[in-house]
């Protein structure tokens, strides 16, 4: 069992393993969340008795952002683009929830209170996607296999400064 605690066992150490777990579970959740929408991508918001008023192609972009963004994150394929798709979809979801009438809570409404919008899930998924956008997918990804590891930024080179000789004294002549 000591191999589980050995950071050299994992590519890119334990942070790489953490990124892998975050990518797999978040990507799976997003892909499953968007899969049902992909069966009718241009009308998934208009299924209830009240049409949403959102244009069909925007609904299609949202469904594609969730489904294909989730798949991209899950496999670590084109991770920055996949993360942008998920972030844009979750940002619009938060705006949509804030536009709903009634109180807005970060987490679900307290017991015995009227139904309200909760920002917990879209904000959490937005932050997870932002994290993957900023950090990258890690070495355990298709991106790392296809494109290799980013070159490390070299430390700034110290600039040697030379001191100029003192100026020659000015001699006034008469």
Secondary structure layout:
Elements: H1 2-5, H2 13-38, H3 56-75, H4 79-98, E1 104-105, E2 117-118, H5 120-135, H6 142-147
Parallel strand pairs: 1-2
Helix pairs in contact: 2-3, 2-5, 3-4, 4-5
Strand content: under 5%
Approximate helicity band: 40-55%
Rg over alpha carbons = 26 Å
Number of helices: 6
Q: Which class of secondary structure composition applies to the elements?
A: mainly alpha
Distance between the termini: 92 Å
The helix/strand order is: HHHHEEHH
Largest sheet: 2 strands, parallel
Q: Write down the overall mean pLDDT.
A: 79
Regions with little confidence, pLDDT below 50 for 5+ residues: none
Tally the beta strands. Answer: 2
Based on Cα principal axes, name the global outline.
Answer: elongated
Overall number of domains:
1
Name a few traits of the molecule.
174 residues, mainly alpha, two-stranded parallel ribbon, 53% helix
How do you describe this structure in short?
The chain has helices spanning 2-5, 13-38, 56-75, 79-98, 120-135, 142-147, and strands at 104-105, 117-118. By secondary structure, the protein is mainly α. It has one domain.
Structure explained in plain terms:
The chain has helices spanning 2-5, 13-38, 56-75, 79-98, 120-135, 142-147; strands spanning 104-105, 117-118. It is elongated. The longest helix is centred in the first third of the chain and has 26 residues, at 13-38. It has one domain. Helix 3 (56-75) crosses helix 4 and helix 4 (79-98) runs antiparallel to helix 5. The protein is built from six helices and two strands. 53% of the residues lie in helices and 2% in strands. Strands 1-2 form a two-stranded parallel ribbon. By secondary structure, the protein is an all-alpha fold.
């Amino acid at each position: 069992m000591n191999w589980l605690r050995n950071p050299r066992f994992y590519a890119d150490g334990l942070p790489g393993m953490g990124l892998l777990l975050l990518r797999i579970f978040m990507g799976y959740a997003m892909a499953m969340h968007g899969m049902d929408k992909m069966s009718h991508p241009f009308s998934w918001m208009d299924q209830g008795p009240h049409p949403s008023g959102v244009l069909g192609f925007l609904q299609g972009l949202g469904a594609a952002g969730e489904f294909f963004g989730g798949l991209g994150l899950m496999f670590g394929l084109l991770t920055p683009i996949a993360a942008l798709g998920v972030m844009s979809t979750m940002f619009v979801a938060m705006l949509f929830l804030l536009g709903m009438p009634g109180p807005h809570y970060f987490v679900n409404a307290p017991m015995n209170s009227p139904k309200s919008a909760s920002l917990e899930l879209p904000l959490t998924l937005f932050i997870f996607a932002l994290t993957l956008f900023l950090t990258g997918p890690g070495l355990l990804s298709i991106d790392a296999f296809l494109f290799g590891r980013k070159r490390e930024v070299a430390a700034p080179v110290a600039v040697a400064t030379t001191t100029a000789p003192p100026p020659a004294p000015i001699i006034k002549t008469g």
